[in-house]
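User: Here's a chain of 690 residues. Predict its fold as tokens.
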Amino acid sequence: MLASVAGLLVLCASAVVDVCAADAPAAVDEKRLVAADTEPGNWMSHGRTYSEQRFSPLKQVDVGNVSRLGLAWSVDLNTNKGQEATPLVIDGVMYVSTAWSMVQAYDAGTGKQLWDFDPQVPRDTLVKGCCDAVNRGVAAWGGKVFVGTLDGRLIAVDAKSGKQVWSTVTVDQSKPYTITGAPRVVKGLVLIGNGGGELGVRGYISAYDAATGEMRWRFYTVPGNPAQGFENAAMKRAAETWTGEWWKLGGGGTVWDSMAYDPKLDLLYIGVGNGSPWNRAIRSPGGGDNLFLSSIVALRPSTGEYVWHYQETPGESWDYTAAQHIIVADLKIDGRMREVLLHAPKNGIFYVIDRRNGQLVSAKPFVPVTWTRGVDMKTGRPIENPDIRFGETGRPVDMMPGPLGAHNWQPMSFNPSARLVYIPAQEVGTKYTPQPDFKPSSMGWNVGTAPGQSSATDVKGYLLAWDPVRQREAWRVPYAGPWNGGTLTTAGNLVFQGTAAGEFVAYNATDGKRLWAAPTQTGVMAAPVTYRVGANQFVAVVVGWGGSFAMTGGKRAAMSGNIRNISRILVYKLGAKQELPPADPLLALELSPPPSQASHEVINRGGELFGRYCVVCHGAGAVSGGAVRDLRASAFLSNPVWFDVVLRGAMKEIGMAAFDPVLTEEDASAIREYVIHRANQDKQAATSPK
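Assistant: Prediction complete.
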């Protein structure tokens, strides 16, 4: 009997799991996560291990045979919004979140669906989001799967049945908070942050008991009203770097994505977002660094106690979040091993930071930047170029990077053998224009600037292999445009990445040689994973175009490639020969708007309102980037139903909220006239002789 039990445990540990998964699904605990490298066939947490390196020791698929990869199975997802999730694969079962915070479980070897959980997020919650109804993944612990929902709940789902175990509201739902990031679990505590920095909230991260959903601690990332006291000494210290009445505007600093954990040091690392409003001259008119905006902060995971921080962009004013992927690594630098964090945030600087104390080890630009001449290694502070603070100067400024960042949420990866980091890098500039008459709104963006297209029209996207020790580029692969997928690297000396143009590609991790590609029929943003079931290594990626660039980018989004949304999971293995069904042809957009008869004043007013309330979903210049229907071709442009939709929520069930709390009928009419004007402009341009 004892021998039988021991044998069963060995089978479970080695991921030969047909029996084990049925009896104890998602039986993840601290011991398994800390020792994740002993189970290379599983992908048990967001970045595979607590280090978030997204490196797999699996090497059945390698540079010599990757060309034999074929489609093993695929499934269509029940949503047509952007897909950004990293699947988990635990003991032969895949757990994956989709848009609208839904979760599914599949047999990871065959694709057979095991269950489907829908948290029933109200569709008009979309108005509170900056960046589509996306979700970046789930966490697993103790037989449960955890998901954060767009409307601010944290939900535990039974991993075997797909039934809800508990649910807790983590935000004030009367405010424009959302959750799109993946939870993490450390020491039995589920960690979750939130978003809303563009709309006017105060950021924080919270920890909940994985068994009960009870909140154990909360750490705010920016201070609240000093008259009400401070939650801890860290907030008192932070308040000394703010001026004015920032708390009335929210402050920002949301922890909307990245976290990493070092079990040896027992430190949790969180990436903190942008200021709210972006414009420091509005939220903190006397200046100041505005801690802990745009910082990496180290906390004790059991208590939320502050340990140290490193601020990458003091006095952040350009949406330069530090919420991008954080990697824990050990590197030999100047002849000695260093315990470091690797970070490539929006601001375009690659940072190597001592993870024990937050001291800067090195910092170099990984893309062209115009906001700084570099980082002062004595102080750790950027050397700002003059006149970049548009709020203080009152003059527009053209910046590289812009708010889309040099690297956004798409995860990078680190190969410890090749000693390279693989970054979904991009060059997208923006012109920031101050808004001296800014007034906060209960709906729409509250950023305090009017972002516009940069004079630098050469927009780029590429896969960048970066040497973090020498702080220099090793190689790059150019793409059609920005907003390409996250990366995976393996012991087979491979790097996998999906592209916005609709391919899933494998490269040689050492030199960037393209070795294999498969069509995906849609733009890819999510990061791949690899796992083993039985004797086979699989590579999986969730596909489906969307997200902030597709929503706001307009014509720029179209230049990146395949802007249609076909939401699927695609899974590959050696020798497989499945094929995707043919994709429907993309229909040409037919513009037949009514004549544009409004005055320039009305059209300009409509454009201003569109920029604040509509552009986040319907695209710059009223040009859809593929994530929603294009308003220029709307049948409602010459129909009074327009007002029912815009003001009274006639289409709220598909995500179009009612804007009558902030817009009048005159405002809605001006927006319509602006869209009509834009449609006529583009129709004329399309029919004019070249």
